[in-house]
Design brief:
13 strands; 2 domains; alpha/beta; 42% helix; 7-stranded parallel beta sheet; Rossmann fold; 16% strand
């Protein structure tokens, strides 16, 4: 089967959408399908070995990229005469019309849940422009029940078009030891949170406030490690951390490459995910796979995925975040329960099954 995939936007694995795109390309290729990939000009090298059609260099600006994707890319898709097309970042890009059977993958609608998540122009595009075109798509994939409900509520997508298809578990390969030494960390002596440094959406400031509330013994024993590239609002996070009484116990690692992820996860005392809103939360199930006890927000898909396998808290309450961290760091029996439950939960998610369902959605549409 010939499948065309829009791999736009793509940032070399630094975001959940980027990881998602790389994994479905990998799995659909393993299943023997012929793939044609449309990528941004500077992302083409990330898909070496595949049939890649990069966008012109002049489409590098976000607004130009959006317009090109809406109006010009459908024409190029039609010329490829593929069986069907996948828009991997459907909460960012869409087609103005469907040149072939098109599956649009929507990861989250965080713009309705986090105030001022993006600049006014982008918020207008995401709330007023994009929904109109997504409603026209052949099928919409939601990566969680939370996202599926939001698609009906906010974008008025017809329920019969929506297919829930959970993300898979990513297990990094080709690990290179040395990450702990680089930051002078000891195994089991840090609290880990992996996310781009984005304020307020990723909620780093409330996490730092929670860390400040821990008993002195725990603050002196553990570091707070924040792994991720700077994004919108990062300056505010760094400013708060720098002025914190715990500044010397807070470590920013920048983006953690996939070759260092296993070492970062396996040696963490606890994994915390305090985001104000997530469409899925890939790092939560990755931490569970590596047998790290987890706590996370009780909202969006995090509460859905973390149920019975993580301690849940209100992300807007530093007190609740601190209480969850304290329990996991202090109660060994609870730690073991969370580790066991998390391992089982992580095993439920498969990229291969996700890819198979994408193909099944297309096949079922042609049987009806």
């Amino acid at each position: 089967m010939k499948i065309l995939i829009s791999c736009i936007p793509f940032d070399q694995g630094k975001s959940g959408i980027s990881v998602y795109t790389a994994k479905i390309v990998e799995e659909l290729s393993r299943l023997g399908h012929e793939l044609v990939l449309f990528t941004e000009h500077d992302a083409a090298d990330s898909f070496r070995g595949f049939n890649v059609i990069p966008l012109p260099k002049w489409t590098g600006k976000p607004l130009i990229s959006m317009l090109y994707h809406l109006f010009i890319l459908p024409l190029k898709v039609k010329r490829q005469q593929c069986d069907f097309c996948i828009i991997a970042g459907g909460n960012r890009r869409a087609f103005s019309y469907m040149p072939t059977f098109t599956i649009t993958v929507v990861h989250d609608l965080a713009q309705y849940h986090v105030a001022e998540k993006y600049d006014p122009l982008r918020m207008f595009y995401l709330k007023k422009v994009l929904p109109t075109f997504v409603r026209r798509t052949s099928a919409v994939v939601a990566i969680s029940r939370s996202t599926a409900l939001d698609l009906e509520r906010f974008w008025k997508v017809a329920p019969e078009k929506i297919h829930i298809n959970f993300n898979g578990l990513t297990i990094p390969s080709g690990q290179h030891p040395g990450w702990l030494n680089r930051f002078n960390l000891q195994p089991g002596r840090y609290i880990l949170y992996l996310s781009r440094i984005q304020h307020p959406g990723k909620n780093h400031v409330n996490l730092i406030k929670a860390f400040e509330m821990l008993p002195e013994q725990l603050k002196n024993e553990y570091y707070l490690v924040l792994g991720g590239a700077d994004w919108d609002g990062a300056t505010e996070v760094h400013r708060y951390a720098k002025n914190s009484d715990c500044a010397e116990r807070i470590i920013f690692t920048d983006f953690i490459d996939s070759t260092n992820l296993e070492e970062a996860y396996r040696n963490a005392a606890v994994y915390v995910f305090p985001s104000l809103f997530e469409g899925f939360g890939l790092s939560l199930i990755e931490a569970m796979h590596y047998e790290v006890p987890c706590c996370c927000s009780d909202n969006s898909s995090l509460g859905e995925i973390g149920r019975d396998a993580a301690l849940l808290f209100n992300p807007e309450s530093p007190d609740e975040i601190a209480a969850a961290l304290k329990r996991i760091l202090s109660e060994n029996e609870l730690r073991q329960q969370l580790i066991a439950a998390g391992k089982l939960r992580a095993a439920e998610f498969s990229w291969r099954e996700h890819a198979l369902k994408l193909v099944q959605i297309y096949e079922n549409s042609h049987r009806s």
